[in-house]
Fold each of these.
Amino acid sequence: MNTDQEKLNMSANRLEALGDGIFSVAMTILVIELRIPLVKENSFRALLHGLYEVRQELFCYFISFIVLGIMWFGHRMVFEYISRTNRYFIFLGVLFYMIVCLVPFSTRFLAANTLQWYAILMYGLNLSGCNLTLYAQWTYGIKRKTLHARILPDEVRKEARRLFLISPIMYAIAIIFSFFFPWISIGIYFFTPILYLLPNKIDKYLP
């Protein structure tokens, strides 16, 4: 049997750094893939018309950028309480990053087919997958005290669970509405990130 001195000290710092890089690349791609407005005349009216032509892309970009920012914050909070890793925690992290990297693709697909059920479905599944895989990683990590960085208050545990599961529930509702009233689905996608900007119980643990 291996002694404690022989075991590897698998710090979570490298995995967290990889995640930061993944988020920065995904959020940058969202901007890069925006179509340049076609301004046919040298006038303010022509500029507004050009922006109007790409309104769906700008709208979807805005939602996805805010959503990724919120997910990055959740990802950051995970590593506030978890400082070490093992192979299963790393696997769940890589799975989460893989799904995050799909967000620019599903965003562009939604921008091109905004009121089509299949685009709304793909986008909702993509964002739900991000939330659920990060939640799976969080749940796995907090159940293993050997990975903990600090004591996890029960209030944080309960509130984190609520915050992780709000989005998948909202996105499931959006997907259902997409078959009948797709504009309601788009409204749900717009409204859901706002819920995370409201005060919550975790705020008092932040500096």
Amino acid sequence: MARLRAAGVLDTKPGRGSVILSSAPNTVHFAPTTHSLKFDENLFELRLTMESAGTALAAARRTEENLAAIQTAMNKMEIAAGSGLVDSEADVAFHRAVAQATHNPYMMSILEFISERFAAFVQTAWDNSKVIGAGPQPAIQEHQAILAAIRSGDQDRARLAALSHLYALKDRMLAGKSAIQEASLTVRVKK
């Protein structure tokens, strides 16, 4: 809220609440802060807990419409990966569609909260997949396993697939960070 006020988007007054200003810009871009680029173990634990339980709920409650939305996001990730591109937006859309399949509005709200803060990590993990030589295929396979478990209605398998994916995501992030640091040290030494 403070950043939106500072950007000239909101005006907040006691007793009235927050109002979008008529002079507000159409778009506001916030660059990531230094803190947002550092891996946050607490945020990871929240996502780990929430998404593993949410994926199990999605397996129990999903509709054909939910499965179609999850499959659409999966298709976008596969197309991007096949052409050598990174599509973290499709990744986030995938997890958003899974949250919608829980049919729990609070689950969706929490995922939105987490996604805003975790988006940079998702992008970093996709980027790091190239740096560490794994490419996008492991992440694609992890998402396929989640989709298959949800489609089958197997809650335990869905929970385990989500846990496996999230731990692998963390490993890719941290391994990539190390690889990037080693590469930058190598460059400095050569100069």
Amino acid sequence: MTKIYVDADACPVKDEIERVAHRHGVETLLVTDGGLRPSRNPNVRLVIVPQGADAADDWIAEHISAADVCVTNDIPLAARCLEKGALAIRPNGERFSENNIGQALAMRELMQTLRDGGEISGGPRPFSKADRSNFLSALETMVRAALGGAASA
């Protein structure tokens, strides 16, 4: 049975995830180290992990399986999910895949090196309405594919 795992602490699209989960009757796990309210949606379960830098990521990577979907901005977590045959998507709708994860990991490392060296500052661009819309469309497509057994949405 397909599940949606959400790296929930800083996820800006929890409402959209709940809508898709409800529409398809898919169990959704919001994984957090605290600070989130439980959902009233019976398909959504709050999983509270111990506080720690990668506690939520480790929990998701340990429990996710093939045909599940992970929503995360964390590139190393996405890579771990892909290794297990799961699908992974960013909150802006960008899908992680075997074809782009290596480049994403390399770019993450490069940007961290540049930030550590003071070459660049600041963070990602602000989250937009278009990002939210793109995510909703991409997640809908991904969940339909996962439910249909086609992990290549």
